[in-house]
């Protein structure tokens, strides 16, 4: 089954996702499907809610086009520490197509999560990975990077996305 990436404004993207109780083949199948959608997009991360599944599941792959793939799987990720020092990245989001903005976040974070095999793990991340993890965990709580912008900038982006969604609807129909 082909799943589509939801585009803001969409009330589903604003919902809080539920933790998973166990890691079974069904979850692993979902994560593999999410990876494929993410690679095809292409993007460096994807939260299940972006394809309409309200579960706390995230996939990330920061490998470059010419490098070996390096998929990372995070179930029930919880950020347990955020550094005081900040870093700024230009962020994009598959649910905000064509929109980019510089966002300041803690430069490092420590994460507890369950891996692909159902094992509890801890990871200390920095650089782009730390930013991407925070971006994805935000998705699980219904938060998008535009929420960190001024109301004016955020409203401008939402207006563009409404227009974009109308245009793609028109092409499909
Ligand atoms: O593809 C993506 N690129 C990106 C760039 C900077 C910070 C975060 C990201 S995540 C984004 C894919 C996405 O929307 N994940 O939810
Ligand atoms: Ni995103």
What this model shows, in words?
By secondary structure, the chain is of the alpha+beta class. It has one domain (11-169): Peptide deformylase (Peptide Deformylase, Alpha-Beta Complex), CATH 3.90.45.10. 30% of the residues lie in helices and 25% in strands. It has three helices and seven strands. The protein has helices at residues 25-40, 127-140, 151-172; strands at residues 45-47, 57-60, 72-82, 86-91, 101-106, 108-114, 120-126. The strands form two sheets. Strands 1-2-3-6-7 form a five-stranded antiparallel β-sheet, sandwiched between helices. Strands 4-5 form a two-stranded antiparallel ribbon. Strand 6 (108-114) and strand 7 form a beta hairpin. The two termini are 20 Å apart.
Secondary structure: elements and pairs:
Blueprint: H1 25-40, E1 45-47, E2 57-60, E3 72-82, E4 86-91, E5 101-106, E6 108-114, E7 120-126, H2 127-140, H3 151-172
Antiparallel strand pairs: 1-2, 2-3, 3-6, 4-5, 6-7
Bound molecules: ligand GNR and nickel (II) ion.
């Amino acid at each position: 089954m082909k799943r589509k990436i939801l585009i803001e404004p969409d009330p589903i993207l604003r919902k809080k996702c539920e933790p998973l109780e166990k890691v079974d083949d069904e979850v692993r199948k979902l994560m593999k499907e999410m990876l494929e959608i993410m690679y095809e997009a292409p993007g460096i991360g994807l939260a299940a809610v972006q394809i309409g599944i309200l579960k706390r599941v995230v996939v990330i792959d920061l490998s470059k086009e010419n490098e070996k793939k390096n998929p990372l799987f995070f179930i029930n990720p919880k950020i347990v520490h955020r550094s005081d020092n900040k870093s700024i990245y230009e962020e994009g989001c598959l649910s905000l197509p064509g929109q980019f903005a510089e966002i300041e976040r803690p430069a490092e974070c420590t994460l507890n999560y369950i891996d692909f095999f159902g094992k509890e793990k801890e990871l200390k991340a920095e650089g782009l990975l730390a930013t991407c993890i925070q971006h994805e965990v935000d998705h699980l709580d219904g938060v998008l990077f535009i929420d960190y912008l001024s109301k004016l900038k955020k409203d401008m982006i939402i207006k563009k996305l409404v227009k974009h969604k109308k245009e793609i609807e028109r092409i499909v129909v």
